[in-house]
Amino acid sequence: MDISQDYFSCYGLSCDFSLDPVALRQSHRQLQQQHHPDRFVSKSDSDQRRAVQITAYLNQAYATLSEPLKRGIYLLQLQGMEPLAPTNTQMPMDFLLQQIELRESLEEISQAQDPETQMDSMSSRLQHQASQLESEFAQAYGSSNFEIAETSVRKLQFIVKLQQQLDALEGALLD
Amino acid sequence: MALLQIAEPGQSAKPHQRKLAVGIDLGTTHSLVASVRSGQAETLANSRGEHLLPSVVRYLADELPQVGIKAQAHLVDDAANTVMSVKRLMGRGIDDVKRLGESMPYLFEACDQGMPLINTVSGLKSPVQVSADILRALVQRGESSLGGELVGAVITVPAYFDDAQRQATKDAAQLAGIQVLRLLNEPTAAAVAYGLEQDQQEQGTIAVFDLGGGTFDISILRLEQGVFEVLATGGDSALGGDDFDHALAEWMRQERQIPAQLGLAEQRFLLRLARAGKELLSDVCSTELSFDGWPGDATYADLELTRERMNLLLDPIIDKAVRATKRTLRDAKVALGDIARIVMVGGSTRSLRVQERVADLFQQPLLTDIDPDRVVALGAARQADVLAGNQSGEELLLLDVLPLSLGLETMGGLVERVIDRNTPIPVARAQEFTTYQDGQTAMAIHVLQGERELVQDCRSLSRFDLRGIPAMAAGAAKIRVTFQVDADGLLEVSARELTSGVAASVQVKPSYGLSDVQIADMIKASWTNVEDDRSARSLREQQVEADRLGEAITMALAEDGARLLTSQQQQVIENQMQQLVVARNGHDHHAIAKQIEEMAKASDAFAAMRMDDSIKLALAGKSVDQL
Questions:
Q1: Nearest by CB to B427, which of A32, A42, A56?
Q2: How far does CA B565 lie from the centroid of its chain?
Q3: Most B CBs within 10 Å, among A1, A27, A32, A41, to test the B interface
Q4: Cβ of B227 and A170 within 8 Å?
Q5: For A53-66, what is each residue's pLDDT tens digit?
Q6: Cβ-defined contact of A56 to B386 (cutoff 8 Å)
Q7: Which residues in chain B are closer than 8 Å to A59, comparing Cβ atoms?
Q8: Whole-angstrom Cα distance, residue B491 to residue B618?
Q9: Are strands B227-236 and B397-399 parallel, antiparallel or unpaired?
Q10: B21-25 and B152-157: which strand pairing?
Q11: pLDDT tens digits, B14-28
């Protein structure tokens, strides 16, 4: 197993945004079966260390490819771009205004009469936006329009952060 | 069901062809050793047919230590030399142990690394040595029952064990001369014990509900293609069956109006009565509790305890376990209805009410066929059999996760997360840091484990220095710190300065720092103190920012204040500086933020003047062509 190759190659996939998550999980399983340190317990120390490195690499690869946001960022990095560089902060005004509005409605949820319905509707709204941005990214990346792809992935990052905050809020309210 | 499965003829090799390996459950009160024989995992008994080995070691002056029941018999008459519950001391420092207080009747001494040593007639004993003595007894039992030398053992640890506790457990095995095939998390072991993966049809999500005397663990696993994958693990390390006894005892005291100030003997009496009542109600619906033999002067009438009454008392405690379970399901991104199997572990899951409530929560029957005291050892034995290479073809594989987040100390006593909890292991992660001061040539690396945001609330795992960084401006050095966690959950850290290549690395060995109680509180508190943490974090951040701004302005005033500003202008900035200092020393991060803003406003004009001035200086005497 070559751990300097890109994450797509190690699963025998082409560098593409769209992939089959079930197939990815299954090939990840198969590679783990083959390379996990548990398979090298009676082997030499260097074999064991190598198994730890390979499995750590596979875990990182799987974590990156199985999440759309991380997958998108990684694809752009393969093109030599750094979509999340701290200097990279410009966003379209209408998107920022929409973010402020979403953030406000998130804050209002905890005071709402029926927080669960509100959370559900917000969740599906975010889900909808996320999948829109994902297909935007897939199309732009597929046609080598990397600048547009970068904007979509940065927008997606905002949405994912909101989803995480919503999850945390849900946890706190249901406890 | 695996228990009823009949081994196929070619499937299990003859005993002499097998490599001998055991699973060991190294418990707080008792330990077990188990092995796979003729395709079945079974716990191994001693010559008297006893399976449970009490985790007690008694040290003698000129003889080998006694382990187990023999040692247990001397807990009272030779308390100072008879060590019990040593698991609670593993990976802990002398200061933590002192905080455990009177519950430990031993004479402790500290060695130079701060490890607690117990002063016995046969010399100073560390917790690692005591555990090693228990492990030796278990290995001997394994070798005599299996008839040969062992190639190694899988040893189980609680899922919430941190790096220091895992490392101490591995050290103990090394001391006892056993090859550790793997450290395995107890709930994961329990899931494996049922052999669910042997049925090719079986796949889905499994919950392991582990309620012991003092701790509660919940793990969510996915089984697919013979692979067990831990999705999330959680729980409450200060919740257990002991709480049931205390709730029942308190109810009895109130019912009979026994004064709240009780002596030790009276407390013990009530707890014993509570335990007896609890056990009786597994078979009958109602029982009479008798106060005969009450150690105090008063006499009390018998008291009726019904199952309904007991359930009312137990429910608030079980509620906590249910909440922790739901939280862990959310971490695993799994819905209640997705759970296909529920494995019950730990003595306290014998309680009918616990079984009712858990079955009710998941709307599913529970897996309780295997004795909850033995299920962990049996699972470890199955994993040991696989790791020793006794199975071929599609083998069982366990993919576990990191139980507690790992991070580094940064400015202001904050923890920067490097690896989040519930990340699959093995894992390697690198993070880049930089220097804070001009000309800084060394950096202290402080490795921490825990869920809280402040260094003081997390467990300190290790400290080391990276020296020989070439002197550069603040922020120019690039220091990459790499964490690597292996399949046992053990951490190795290395640091390298990228521009010069200077490197340092450590295998993390316990630096000791927190007590079991603190660990318990840490885990619990990480779920309740999120708000506190956030404001504490904001406070530190604002303080660091205020200090930075204050320093910069003080320096600027010293350099250019008199030259560029009128004394009145200087006075305005100095007044604002005093207000900033007052706010910075307070505890309100909003107030500090406000004063930082005010300070920035008050000094804006001055900053602009300095900028113009330096441009003028730079341009002085130069023509446009020269630029």
A1: A56
A2: 58
A3: A41
A4: no
A5: 999 999 999 999 99
A6: no
A7: 423-427
A8: 52
A9: parallel
A10: parallel
A11: 444 678 999 999 998
Whether A17 has a pLDDT exceeding 60, the answer reads: yes
The model's pTM is: 0.77
Q: Which chain B residues in 312-331 lie under 8 Å from chain A, judged by CB atoms?
A: 323, 326-327, 330
Which tens digit of pLDDT belongs to each residue from B533-549? Answer: 667 777 777 888 888 88
d(CA B228, CA B272) in angstroms, rounded, equals 40
What is the pLDDT at residue B523?
40
Q: Kind and range of the H or E element at B555?
A: helix B530-556
- Candidates B333, B420, B222; CA nearest to A29 is B222
Q: What is the dihedral of CA B178, B20, B160, B493, to 10 degrees?
A: 50
As a whole number of angstroms, the distance between CA B445 and CA B460 comes to 11
C-alpha B134/C-alpha B172 separation (Å) is 9
Q: What angle do CA B407, B412, B415 make, to 5 degrees?
A: 15
User: Is some CB atom of chain A closer than 8 A to the CB atom of B356?
Assistant: no
Q: Do B241-316 and B531-619 come out as alike in CATH topology?
A: no
- Looking at every residue in chain B, the average pLDDT score rounds to 83
Within 8 A by CB and 6+ apart from B102, the residues are none
Q: What is the DSSP string of B159-173?
A: TT--HHHHHHHHHHH
Q: What are phi and psi of B479, to 5 degrees?
A: -110, 115
B1-194+373-391 under CATH 3.30.420.40, yes or no: yes
Q: Which CATH architecture has domain B531-619?
A: Up-down Bundle (1.20)
Nearest to B83 by CA among B122, B132, B31, B120: B120
- Is the ipTM, as predicted for this complex, more than 0.90? no
CATH of domain A93-174: 1.20.1280.20
CA geometry: angle B36, B191, B146, nearest 5 deg: 15
Q: Do B426 and A38 touch (CB under 8 A)?
A: no
Whole-angstrom distance, CA of residue B76 vs CA of residue A5: 63
CA distances from B177 to A48, A105, B59, B66, B101 (A): 20, 61, 20, 18, 32
Q: Where are the domains of chain B?
A: 1-194+373-391, 241-316, 406-528, 531-619
Question: DSSP characters for B329-378?
Answer: HHHTT--GGGEEEEEEESGGGGSHHHHHHHHHHHTS--B--S-TTTHHHH
Helix (H) or strand (E) holding B274: helix B264-280
Give B6-31 as a DSSP string: PPPGGGSPPGGGSPPEEEEE--SSEE
- Nearest Cβ partner for A41 among B181, B227, B398: B181
Which are the contacts of B410, defined by CB distance < 8 A and separation ≥ 6? Answer: B416, B433
What's the topology of domain B406-528? Substrate Binding Domain Of DNAk; Chain A, domain 1 (2.60.34)
Residues 6+ apart with CB under 8 A from B574: B557
What single-letter DSSP state applies at residue B211? E
Query: Which of B266, B267, B271, B268 lies closest to B295, judged by CA?
Result: B266
Which of A38, A49, A54, A174 best tests the B interface by mutation, with the highest count of B CBs <10 A? A38
Q: Which fold has domain B241-316?
A: Actin; Chain A, domain 4 (3.90.640)
Residues of B in contact with A86 (CB under 8 A): none
CATH of A7-66, one of 1.10.287.110, 1.10.357.10, 1.10.1410.10, 2.40.128.110: 1.10.287.110
Residue of A42, A55, A175 with shortest CB distance to B323: A175
3-state secondary structure of B493: strand
